Amino acid sequence: RFCLPLVLASLPTMATGEEIPPALQDSWGDFWLFRFFVNAAGYASIVVPGFLLIQYFKRRNYLETGRGICFPVIKSCVFGSEVKSVHQEDGSLPPRAEPTESSTARQVFKLLFCAAGLQASYLTWGVLQERVMTRTYGATETDPGEKFKDSQFLVFMNRILAFTVAGLYCALTKQPRHGAPMYKYSFASLSNILSSWCQYEALKYISFPTQVLAKASKVIPVMMMGKLVSRKSYEYWEYLTAALISVGVSMFLLSSAPNRHVSTVTTFSGIVLLAGYIIFDSFTSNWQDALFTYKMSPVQMMFGVNVFSCLFTVGSLLEQGALLESLRFMARHSEFTAHAVLLSVCSACGQLFIFYTINQFGAAVFTIIMTLRQAFAILLSCLIYGHTVTVVGGLGVAVVFMALFLRVYARSRMKKRSKKLPPGETPVQKV
């Protein structure tokens, strides 16, 4: 009966392959792998009964036999209206509105507004994310303070505010008639929760610049997941830029010296968590692309995903008793409360800026702005938290962002060329 606690207690040291700092050795229950399985068990307690109910209603042919006041709710959640849009070519976003009578100065002002909003939202979000997960609260000359450890509570805070903002936006503005079965949002929601959890948890083991660079390189697994989930095909230049990104990331990671401070050492646990983040996030984007075949707006997608995200996270937190503990931590440390609330505000506002920017200027301009944001985030983190980057690491960062800008340039050229070609012809052979 003593074997399981002993094995779990030794897992952190075995997983990282190096000595774990005392802050991460409070108990085996704080180890990320244990918490991951506990969280997954909480989600399963909601997913499994939901799956059984969906199968039950489908087997009963509930659309023909169902009656009562619950019929509209069950129909919306399980069946939907099954109306799909056949006119959306990219399957991810509605066609953006082209400006008709807007002056150049007005368009420049809009572009500056979008760029400033995205940069302010996500740079602040990144700085706060590192502060919350890597620094202590309540430290004095006699008391070392304590760290906040429950990443799932931060995910819940972000999702509840995003759910509120999206709900108000949908209520106050005209939206397309919704046709997707609500349960289909749960797949993207679950992967989105797990990717966010891995992202927060990884900061306990790796530096923020490493995480940002890994996130910039996620085009590689996104392409792989697109092949598996959506059966997509890609052009040769996309594989070339993906290879350049992998080379740049390798240069940055291999340039890290092993004798650095523990907060900047890339451990095995950090790499596994980053891989989990990238895999889950790649699935989320591809599943959302598939859902956009239904006629819906991005804000409706945001609302649907966050409904299930709130349900999963609050259910898991209540089952673990972690919700009350996190609220007590907020009561003890008002600074943490301000950081958590601002973190959620930045996340929700950032999503709205994303939708507005893509609607006004297209995906290419949005990608350039967000690529610059990633570079600024690395610089800001190094300045505020004292991370150091070697010459080889700096060259690796330059290679990554050069490849990202090359992708944007090549994609815009391909779109212009494809508009000039007759229907049915493709400018470049896809593989």
Automatic annotation (TrEMBL):
Keyword Ligase applies: no
Bilayer topology: Multi-pass membrane protein
Top-level taxonomic group: Eukaryota
InterPro entries for the chain: EmrE-like (IPR037185), SCL35B1-4/HUT1 (IPR013657)
Keyword annotations of the record: Membrane, Signal, Transmembrane, Transmembrane helix, Transport
Annotated signal peptide: 1-17
Compartments, as annotated in UniProt: Membrane
Gene Ontology CC: one annotated term: endoplasmic reticulum membrane
Segments crossing the lipid bilayer: 33-57, 108-128, 153-172, 236-255, 261-280, 301-318, 338-356, 363-386, 392-410
GO MF annotation list: 3'-phosphoadenosine 5'-phosphosulfate transmembrane transporter activity
Pfam families assigned: UAA (PF08449)
UniProt similarity note: Belongs to the nucleotide-sugar transporter family. SLC35B subfamily.
Name of the protein: Adenosine 3'-phospho 5'-phosphosulfate transporter 1
Gene: Slc35b2
